[in-house]
Amino acid sequence: MSQPRYDVLAIGNAIVDVMSPCEDELIEELGLARGGMMLVDTERAHELYDAMGPAREISGGSAANTLAGLSALGLQCAFIGQVADDQLGEVFAHDIHAVGIDFDTPARPGPPSTARCLIFVTPDGQRTMNTYLGASQFLPAQALDEQLIASAAVLYLEGYLWDPEEPRAAMRKAIAAARAAGRKVAFTLSDAFVIERHGDDFRALIEAGQIDILFANKVELAALTGKPDFDAGLAALAPKVPVLVVTRSEDGAVAIAHGERHEVAAETVSHVVDTTGAGDLFAAGFLAGYARKASIHRCLAMGAVAAAEIISHYGARPEADLKALIAEKLG
Q1: Nearest to 98 by CA among 67, 119, 61
Q2: Which residues lie closer than 8 Å to 311 by C-beta, 6 or more apart?
Q3: Smallest Cα–Cα separation from 279: which of 63, 20, 36, 17?
Q4: Are 17 and 316 in contact (CB under 8 A)?
Q5: How far apart are CA 319 and CA 42, in angstroms?
Q6: Full-model pTM
């Protein structure tokens, strides 16, 4: 097997986050699912944007956020995702290139526009996300370069992108290419609503041994296994994947790797500003350690440090020096 060109190649939604602080009353007034993520159409996206106060535009997307963290930690990364040939598409491409990630998927001409996520952040730091998928849901399988996928040690996929039909076919093609090249496949479940819609597909991938590293939070674990008890969910799922990583917010995270359980506490954060991207950056810290063959416990600890950094400010891309933070906290 040839030496990989990239440590991690990710396929995900190419999204620009539009973030605005708000009071709890606005969440109720707009009929939003507080702390959750909803897909919205063009009309609803315009309605929500009009209701927002002053906002910041920051490139996002779950898998792209994870790559930004990985790149900040010195790993070589590439991204595959679909933007439109418009201003937000240019913003996304500029931002991802600026942090050292290779991104060469051609922009899609004409409507729909580049995807955006309208994020309302309440005073407690909780984020309520409303995603207009736009162009991102039209990533065709023919846009995939199988040699590029085979050149990455780890293929990282986000469950959010499983929802539209075209990207789902592209991701299946990517998994086949990665496995044929003897590479690892990592998958994040993304959100309980995705599991409600596509849980059978995810369970089939897991049963078929197509996933090497599975990321979930405690809510997603319960949704996938049908077991509300955390330990029962772990027991049901862990034997089916070589590495299972489950986050529990302020209660830390657990990984079961090849039958052995590891746990880490959450890092202390003096003030939670915005929880957007916490899971994405946890995955970045974990995968950075995994790529360097660190112990599973250290991988978890790196994930906890990266997640703590991201919730201390607005936006889902790191602002502090993650390398320095990890060196300071973990040595």
Answers
A1: 67
A2: 125, 269, 272, 273, 274, 275, 277, 278
A3: 63
A4: yes
A5: 31
A6: 0.90
Average pLDDT for the chain: 92
| Residue 329 dihedral angles phi and psi, to the nearest 5° | -80, -35
Work out the end-to-end distance of the chain between its first and last CA atoms, rounded to an integer number of angstroms: 33
What pLDDT, on a 0 to 100 scale, did the predictor assign at position 92? 94
Q: Which two tokens stand for residue 166?
A: 């075209």
Residue pair 140/134 in contact (Cβ under 8 Å)? The answer is no
Beta bridge partners of 155: 9, 185
Provide CATH code, domain 6-13+62-107+137-330: 3.40.1190.20
Please give the Cα distance from 287 to 285 (Å, whole number).
6
Task: Name the H helices within 144-215.
Answer: 146-150, 165-180, 192-207
Task: Name the 3-class secondary structure at 86.
Answer: coil
Strands in 213-217's sheet, in edge-to-edge order, are 102-103, 77-80, 6-11, 152-158, 184-188, 213-217, 243-247, 253-257, 260-264
- Cα-only R_g, the chain: 18
Amino acid letter, residue 209: G
User: 152 with 70: CB under 8 angstroms?
Assistant: no
Segment 14-49, tens digit of pLDDT: 999 898 999 999 999 999 988 888 889 999 999 999
Q: Which 3 state secondary structure label does DSSP give 81?
A: coil
